[in-house]
Amino acid sequence: MSKLSHSDVAPTSVSGSLQDAMLSSMPALRAFAISLCGNVDRADDLVQETLVRAIANIESFEPGTNLRGWLSAILRNHYFSECRKHRNESEDVDGRSVATLKTMPDQDSQIELDEFRAALATLPNSQQEALVLVGALGFCHEEAAAICGTGAATIRSRIHRARVRLTALLDLGSAHEFGPDNRTRAV
Predict the structure, then answer these.
(1) Which residues contact 102 (CB under 8 A, 6 or more apart)?
(2) What would the pLDDT profile of 103-127 be if each residue is shown by its tens digit?
């Protein structure tokens, strides 16, 4: 903040002694502003805005009372008003914070999950078992085959038939269509 002169601070309605008192209060106001916001540049802006507001409302100042206290109250009130106004905002220059805030709506997902469960329940138990072991639980084909007491080729075949049947039951063009719609995927 640049040094303010008497002509910069007060209009003709502010007396010279009041102008001098306002200017002499600036170092204390600046220190108070820095203690509030922790940023020197922001503190200078707060002091400047405090003086502008004080001059605009000089008629509400009662002569003989504590001018520095009045100015400090203006500064404090302005600071907390700005904090309330901007509390839900955050600076995100590179867009990293915004990227972490994206969430998919869960209404469609819940409906799709319910439809998938119903379709899965119509499959033969051997296909359900193979699909769940490999697709949901993450076992490799050989591990799933060992669990089911069959060969890995049989597990692959059961999984393939299960996927083809689910695709037909869910009216999908391919297995890649299961999941969020194009609009949601774009988010």
Answers:
(1) 187
(2) 666 677 788 888 888 999 999 989 9
The fold adopted by the segment(s) 106-186 is Arc Repressor Mutant, subunit A (1.10.10)
3 state DSSP class of 3: coil
Nearest by Cα to 25 from 60, 59, 74: 74
The CATH 1.10.10.10 domain(s) of the chain lie at 106-186
Q: Residue 108 in contact with residue 181, Cβ under 8 Å?
A: yes
Q: Which CATH number fits domain 6-86: 1.10.10.10, 3.40.50.300, 2.60.40.150, 1.10.1740.10?
A: 1.10.1740.10
pTM above 0.85, yes or no: no
Q: How is residue 69 written in tokens? A: 């206290």
Residue 109's CB is within 10 A of a number of other CB atoms, namely: 13
